[in-house]
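Following the same procedure, sequence and fold were stored together, as reproduced here:

>
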Amino acid sequence: MTEPTRRDAGAEIARLIDIMAQLRHPRTGCPWDIEQDFASIAPYTIEEAHEVADAIDRQAWGELPGELGDLLLQVVFHAQMAREAGMFDFADCAAAISDKLIFRHPHVFGDESRDKSAEQQVRDWEAIKAVERAGKAERGTLDGVALGLPALTRAIKLQNRAARVGFDWPGPADVLEKIVEETAELVEARDTLGADALEEEFGDLLFVMANLARHLDVDPEQALRRANAKFTRRFGAVEASLAAEGRRPEDSDLAEMDRLWDQAKAAERATE
């Protein structure tokens, strides 16, 4: 891992903002950058956030500054477009998050005591956010949960909101019972109903699975990323075993690949 260069953060941010302004200049800028708008850039913003998470998952610390820089560019890009439209600029974005952090941490920046339990901290945090939502005229319990979030993340946030007002199962056992019920409904939809009903029932099952993760205090996104990584690793071992014999997966069959999968699984567990 490289050591920090101790560059002047303010100067580098100002340089980045200036570069973005030049890229968006209507006469001398980059045609692609000039053509973009908030909607066209939003998918890149989400993609860059996922690439930051991927670098962290892989502990690729040498890549992380670049990935965080790519994510920062998204903020600067949106801020530049807003500045051109006379809406706001990068300074407003920075001021907004600074003000929010100070407001949400009165035990650090105010006169409240820091001597609180983690549970009390959470309750205070939620009370502060409730005040913020009231200021935005968000009256419903689920108001303000962004539609653009990944579906799994949004499911957890919706469930957490509902749980705050008592709409929640008592514990994991109750959620497991609901999973059995939803699984039966999915099977029924597969056997007797159309594609739309099948998709709906599958969505219901995924939603309850997310709720189970919440009750078990498991991050479902992280759990699925780990499962994806495990599948990639073990299937790679299957391919490597076949390649050692000059073959590819399409030259094999399910029974053989299952056997090789089990071998890869056993080899992993032997090294744990």
Q: What stands out?
A: The two ends are 26 Å apart (CA to CA).
